[in-house]
Amino acid sequence: MKNITMLIHCRDQKGIIAQVTAFFLSAEGNIVYIDQYVDRENNEFFMRLECELPETVLIDTVRSDFEYKVAKKFNMLWKLYTRSRSLKMALFVSKYEHCLYDLLSRCSVGELKVDIPLIISNHDDLRIAAERFGIPFYHIPVTAATKPDAEVQHLRLLEEHSVDFIVLARYMQIVPPALIERYPNKIINIHHSFLPAFPGAKPYHSAFSRGVKIIGATSHYVTEELDEGPIIEQDTVRVSHVHSIDDFIMKGKDLERIVLSRAIKLHAERKTMVYGNKTIIFS
Amino acid sequence: MKNITMLIHCRDQKGIIAQVTAFFLSAEGNIVYIDQYVDRENNEFFMRLECELPETVLIDTVRSDFEYKVAKKFNMLWKLYTRSRSLKMALFVSKYEHCLYDLLSRCSVGELKVDIPLIISNHDDLRIAAERFGIPFYHIPVTAATKPDAEVQHLRLLEEHSVDFIVLARYMQIVPPALIERYPNKIINIHHSFLPAFPGAKPYHSAFSRGVKIIGATSHYVTEELDEGPIIEQDTVRVSHVHSIDDFIMKGKDLERIVLSRAIKLHAERKTMVYGNKTIIFS
Amino acid sequence: MKNITMLIHCRDQKGIIAQVTAFFLSAEGNIVYIDQYVDRENNEFFMRLECELPETVLIDTVRSDFEYKVAKKFNMLWKLYTRSRSLKMALFVSKYEHCLYDLLSRCSVGELKVDIPLIISNHDDLRIAAERFGIPFYHIPVTAATKPDAEVQHLRLLEEHSVDFIVLARYMQIVPPALIERYPNKIINIHHSFLPAFPGAKPYHSAFSRGVKIIGATSHYVTEELDEGPIIEQDTVRVSHVHSIDDFIMKGKDLERIVLSRAIKLHAERKTMVYGNKTIIFS
Amino acid sequence: MKNITMLIHCRDQKGIIAQVTAFFLSAEGNIVYIDQYVDRENNEFFMRLECELPETVLIDTVRSDFEYKVAKKFNMLWKLYTRSRSLKMALFVSKYEHCLYDLLSRCSVGELKVDIPLIISNHDDLRIAAERFGIPFYHIPVTAATKPDAEVQHLRLLEEHSVDFIVLARYMQIVPPALIERYPNKIINIHHSFLPAFPGAKPYHSAFSRGVKIIGATSHYVTEELDEGPIIEQDTVRVSHVHSIDDFIMKGKDLERIVLSRAIKLHAERKTMVYGNKTIIFS
């Protein structure tokens, strides 16, 4: 069988589900997963669907038939993904190693089904981690002087390695607009606070100084507004007055690891859709 | 508009969703919610659907048309509920008052959209709570001698008040088979542990003595196997060595309140389906 | 036995614990709880202690002895509370009834060991709840014109009823400086967001519009900076794209109930100390 | 300064805290952490204390003085640990690699301050992980025939490497009594369920089949009763009917990683005390 995943977005209208499912029925497909969400306020329809198609079916034919027979009628934005290969994920890191090791381990043991063709860093410190897992590591320093050149190198390396999406695993540099434009809703960041509380630098210090009783971490798609992109996943953990800033940081590391890896998994399995500045997350 | 909710269960087959949605399309219906779940291991299909139908449509006609045009074909078990009236919920209590007050308050302020025609108790202690909220209270003592008679009275009262489902809000008596048979998957219990850990009496004492670091509460449909029925909802809270049994009980009360009220809400909104000894919970 | 609770605050110095415990030892006291916290950054010491003293001991003598023999030496700020009576808690409400019913129920069943001498509201809607539990209810409208007069009435009523502390159970008015000054660190508010995210009005709407995956509630002492006072307790719950603003509000109500009641319990049991803009919470 | 950590256990008596703190005061020590717990039901006293002593002080003298001046009087069980070296932790694994990678990463980046002198496994599969982090790996197959010999080898290797404590990171063999006796309360296991629910083999399958809405993981000290030892740490995560057994396993892996690493950290920092079949966990 050929396995496909579809994501569909259009205005809400009568008969969408009926026609989509009828289409795959007529193509001898077996729908193994279907979920939909309707934003009633804005009258928008979203669907995620997994289908097994006979080996003999040509995916290109399915695509053109679907466009012609269904999508045009409802004015759909849609994507059809085959699962013939793993996505290629580039990692950007700086000096914090907890998320990097966590992701390398998860990919190594098959929990995250993505390939990591390269790791890019503005520091050389984490080369050892990359080498342990046999991943090419590119040290590209970023200073005021080298910044424009570094950005060119980044784009070139990402192209060369046919990267599908980028993960900022505690990368301590602001991502330039050109990169965001080239990879729209394909750059995932982990921010070490429960956004929108404590955006920007040193959120654990801010949380400590505010005296909160719970800290969090947030994974989101990167947009030009710093720490303002669509949130994919968040989680929280309790703290108390006995915890120092170092304790906050230590507890936060576990949050960051888990929240980032969950977000990557959702993205890689095509379970996220971005709409406005929000995400729809299919389970 | 007429609002209906449907629950459907059958063997998984091609075309179910297509035909169900096409049916309501042809009936001028507007599907405002649809969710489905397929148990792939056992090849079973489950669906929940909310639909707005034109005022002119006769519900009985919809029922017979659906049976004839769709349900028969797929050999469906199905139910169609109108939302013309609130469900009637009977409360059984003994001496613990926290769940009772919580449910009376939630119904009073409209958080739980059910009517409470009566409260039945084997003790007279909680009459004051019932009176405060103006609910009829029946004190029916249950001793070895009076048990058979009490059961007859229970059934009669439930019939007289046209009760739709029953909630055991910390009712400290075992429910007889006759009642379970009369209200299948319509009796909801709250057990004060994280089942299947610590079934039976005094679970907080058992949890304390085992030295667990987390305690829980479980709401489930009542079956003839004590504390073994299909689980609707659970939740947990952390404890530590500093907490006494009384602290466990106090913390547990909040769990019980929340877990029970969530389960009742799910049941009243027709979001639960029982299958084997498990539940499917639509969100 | 006479039961006392002490809260102590001073600069951290050698020998504090040794001398405090030796003092109560010499007074034939039995220390049943002792906990301390040292803020190493600022070198501040905090202690909470519960002690059983012989019936024959005069509390006033203990107080003067402690001041003379221990407190003076270490330049302590300290308070000694007897547990001879319940604290008197005034409730301020507006139109939201979930927290009010929850607190009335908890006091009624003995979960919260405080007395409620009166409920004050700027609307008359919740009188029914007060009457059900037999608590005096004062409807004092607050408009631009009546505001100064209302504030005078508030202060007078609080004095007349010998109120120890105030709880704003979703009171939709800003508390004036005079009241805050009169009850410093004795006014507890519940804010329906995970502060410092979404301060001010309509936090559920802001959370919805930001697309967060977790919402929260925060209970804090009221200071002149709106929503900026020392946080006593917070909690969070997961939400997703399927939840509407109404769902956020409904889920938030359970958070508000629990977070507020926990904060009140901590305050009433003398387990909170305020230091700077933060709290120390003894377990 | 010399940093020490003390753990003390005795019958609860008047004056313990006063005399212990006075002792360190007279030794020119600076107590930087002190916490105590009294089991009122059984009248037992527990204390954990961290102290900075002058460089000139001889630890052996402190030990003998403490025994003579304080411990004897109260009939204390006590231990004094210096922090001059990291503890040596042996890892036992089989085929599951998630906990192994997680622990190797945490030790490598300094989150867990322990040394790992060796990894022992009954399978050869995880050698690659050990090699990546440069840790000696011993493949010692365990069959009915080789079991007695394997146990001898285990004990010899542990002695040779001066191991302080053992972690079973999903080791799929039952630990023999001789090993437990040699390392009492020094063998930490991770069980992949919320004990006491689902002890024994295949807990995720049992949880799935029972239809629970929350799964958990439990880290405990190993005793001769399988899965019955003192619990150090537990945590839970929500599941629903849409999750397959594989989803349970995947979600459970994150729980196992976190619960096990927290338990190891607590043990390595001397924050655990075992009493009866329960633990006291100092924060």
How is this fold's topology laid out?
The structure is a homotetramer of 283-residue chains.
Chain A: E1 2-11, H1 16-26, E2 30-39, E3 44-53, H2 59-74, E4 77-82, E5 87-93, H3 98-108, E6 114-115, E7 119-121, H4 127-132, E8 137-139, H5 147-160, E9 165-168, H6 177-182, E10 187-191, H7 203-210, E11 214-221, E12 231-238, H8 245-268, E13 272-275, E14 278-281
Parallel strand pairs in A: 5-6, 5-7, 5-9, 7-8, 9-10
Antiparallel strand pairs in A: 1-3, 1-4, 2-3, 10-11, 11-12, 13-14
Helix pairs in contact in A: 1-2, 3-8
Biggest interchain interface, per-side counts: A-C, 31 and 31 residues
Strand content of chain A is 25-35%
* CATH homologous superfamily label of the largest domain in chain A: Formyl transferase, N-terminal domain
Rg of chain A computed from alpha carbons, rounded to a whole number of angstroms? 21 Å
Output mean pLDDT of chain A.
Answer: 96
For the record, the CATH class of the largest domain in chain A is: Alpha Beta
- Which series of helices and strands of chain A comes N to C? EHEEHEEHEEHEHEHEHEEHEE
Helical fraction of chain A equals: 25-40%
Number of strands of chain A: 14
Global morphology of chain A? globular
Distance between the terminal alpha carbons of chain A, to the nearest Å? 23 Å
Largest sheet of chain A: 8 strands, mixed
Count of DSSP helices of chain A?
8
What kind of oligomer do you see?
A: homotetramer
CATH architecture of the largest domain in chain A: 3-Layer(aba) Sandwich
Looking at the structure, the CATH topology of the largest domain in chain A is Rossmann fold
